From TrEMBL:
<comment type="similarity">
    <text>Belongs to the peptidase M24B family.</text>
</comment>
<dbReference type="Pfam" id="PF05195">
    <property type="entry name" value="AMP_N"/>
</dbReference>
<keyword id="KW-0479">Metal-binding</keyword>
<dbReference type="InterPro" id="IPR036005">
    <property type="entry name" value="Creatinase/aminopeptidase-like"/>
</dbReference>
<keyword id="KW-0645">Protease</keyword>
<keyword id="KW-0464">Manganese</keyword>
<dbReference type="InterPro" id="IPR052433">
    <property type="entry name" value="X-Pro_dipept-like"/>
</dbReference>
<feature type="domain" description="Aminopeptidase P N-terminal">
    <location>
        <begin position="36"/>
        <end position="178"/>
    </location>
</feature>
<dbReference type="InterPro" id="IPR001131">
    <property type="entry name" value="Peptidase_M24B_aminopep-P_CS"/>
</dbReference>
<keyword id="KW-0378">Hydrolase</keyword>
<dbReference type="Pfam" id="PF00557">
    <property type="entry name" value="Peptidase_M24"/>
</dbReference>
<dbReference type="InterPro" id="IPR000994">
    <property type="entry name" value="Pept_M24"/>
</dbReference>
<dbReference type="InterPro" id="IPR007865">
    <property type="entry name" value="Aminopep_P_N"/>
</dbReference>
<dbReference type="GO" id="GO:0004177">
    <property type="term" value="F:aminopeptidase activity"/>
</dbReference>
<keyword id="KW-0031">Aminopeptidase</keyword>
<dbReference type="InterPro" id="IPR029149">
    <property type="entry name" value="Creatin/AminoP/Spt16_N"/>
</dbReference>
<protein>
    <recommendedName>
        <fullName>Xaa-Pro aminopeptidase</fullName>
        <ecNumber>3.4.11.9</ecNumber>
    </recommendedName>
</protein>
Amino acid sequence: MANRRKNGLYPGISAELSALMRTGWADTERQDLQLAEQAPHAARRRAALSARFPGERLVIPSGNLKVRSNDDTYPFRPYTGYVHMAGDQVRDGALVLEPHADGGHDAYCYQLPRDSRDDDEFWTGAHAELWTGRRRSLAESERVLGMPCRDVRTAAADLAAASGPPTRIVRGIDPSLEAAVTTDAERDAELEEALSDLRLVKDSWELGELRKAVDSTVRGFTDVVAELSRAIASSERWIEGTFFRRARLEGNAVGYGSICAAGEHATIMHWTDNDGPVRPGDLLLLDAGVETHSLYTADVTRTLPISGTFTPLQREIYDAVYEAQEAGMATVKPGAPYRDFHEAAQRHLTARLVEWGFIEGPVDRAYELGLQRRFTMAGTGHMLGLDVHDCAQARTEDYVGGVLESGMCLTVEPGLYFQADDLTVPEEWRGIGVRIEDDLVVTDDGHENLSAGLPRAADEVEAWMARFAG
């Protein structure tokens, strides 16, 4: 018996059971499948990648299941570059671009075929279809993806035996395929870099998916406000669960671990334990995003007064962050240096920190020395798309050192964080954290705030909460 457990209840498989299991199954091959909506866009992306590496074989794996504990695995999430180039999400797959004489490439996908009913693997294997669900057949995948598909069980041998053009592979995704090819680490890194570069500007289909992600996220934030009383009666975990419910109902999941940070937890940039109390009088910093079925994610943050009304000090800090975000967003337009929104927001916060006496001025000197970072901590945003921090391996000169182009999608998210143990600020400031984050797409004449459906100004936040809070 394949993958038999040490303490399984059945000692083996009788010949009679094996014969019984192999017979009497209907033909479920689907003839009605159509080309996926994303397929033509993925084909254009592959053409752009092909143009960057003429005469070279390119291998982009999808990745494998990862063990959570013992025989339990994490939900599978394919490598982003594979999703973008193949328009597909299968595990244990790989996209191969094989060069041909005219300088272009032929694309094909390696995938796991359906389990054969001619042996016991289909119902005894650790990841057998009868246990985990039906996969597409190779013929079905060809119809959906619009390119040839091959049995991935031969991929390592095929690649090992391949001769002729040099090969590049994305490393760290599939060890078995990586071991089958002879490549160079620096050249492989250039392939991963190119895959990030090609995601910097989103096509119309991608922008549509990002709109779906943000719209669902707006509804998720409203759900949280409506259930705040339940969170007060329990903990931050109620908030996490409330938002996750919306993400699963309308999308694939959350795009990253939700940050549901109440009270002094709001000063912790990546607080994902989400197990603390939710107390009236404190602030709630909620940083969360719905990931669509196509794996594009939103990334939005609001800081909310749990009681429904900001205290005077909370409002003063909140207004400073809001004004910084306004200053940063005003710079987002085509042709502007990418760094402009960060610098505009950070300079505004630096000025407020000097005004409050928490860092020494003048403002230009404080900003040049980065003194504001004690309280602002992070950069003011990042690219957004299939990854919450999308295009992370792109060339620096094209990303943080580049200029904005129409179709780029980024976050603008300034914040102020006064740690609970920071003796350089008055006691009443300690334990207050505020961040406001929105998802912007650069347009031909400026930008569009995709998350404008959520209020940002303090008065608007209070009015919104009064309408929905339970």
